Amino acid sequence: MNKKIIFFDIDGTLYDPELGVTDLTKQAIKNLLEKGHIPVICTGRTKAMVPDYLTEMGFLGVLAGAGTYVEYDGKVIHNKTMGPETGDSTIALLKENGIHYILEGPENIYVDGENNAEEYQRVIEFAKKYAGDRLRTIQEGDYIINKFTCAPGTAGSFEKAEKKLRDEYHFTLHIDGNFEMTPKGYDKSTGIRLLLEYLKADRKDTYAFGDSTNDLEMLQYVEYGIAMGNSYPQVLEAARYKTLTIQEDGIYYGLKEFGLI
Q1: From CA 157, how far away is CA 152, in angstroms rounded?
Q2: What is the pLDDT confidence band of residue 43, given thresholds at 50, 70 and 90?
Q3: What are the residue ranges of helices labelled H in 153-243?
């Protein structure tokens, strides 16, 4: 059997904040490796937010930062970054339009240490939980990042920010109103394409599991794009294939259905 490459989103797909990673999901990744397939994490999180307990499950590659960072077998093969020369002007525009922001990089996560708004504290709660000692403030100096994660404040406008920045960034709007910004031309499918080129692999041998709007390009790019049963409605509508929810071990049963384990 030809080696297949299977890409997995993290949040809502591999990982649930209440369940963690289910035993059957762990078993599924182990079974893929035993069959000689290539399981790869493909997440909107940057590398700094990908916990060791996930990579230690045996994933052979990590595509992070929504396609901006590509790592295989411990080797970084692509890392599209931005620094203050680009980021500072973007930050100024986001502030002008009432947008809260987190700057996410391969090594650190950066937050605005001068923003004490209650709504902003909720925005950074997720980052604090997973970044740990990799959390920094923008005011501490230079930063190297892959993407922005943003939330309109009470008076903020996504539409105004998107109109002013659409030429420089790819936008992904989430169902809760928050949004991600990656450099123009970068989404999860970009990272997949770069990895396939590196491995000299065929797109017809690709599968992916996801649940969110930032998974749409990934699910549409691979040969077999599989939406989790708990996916956003627009993802369920767009995906060619569907499986059970994360709570029902959708990854395990989806891989079984396709004969991969």
Answers
A1: 6
A2: very high
A3: 158-165, 188-199, 216-221, 233-238
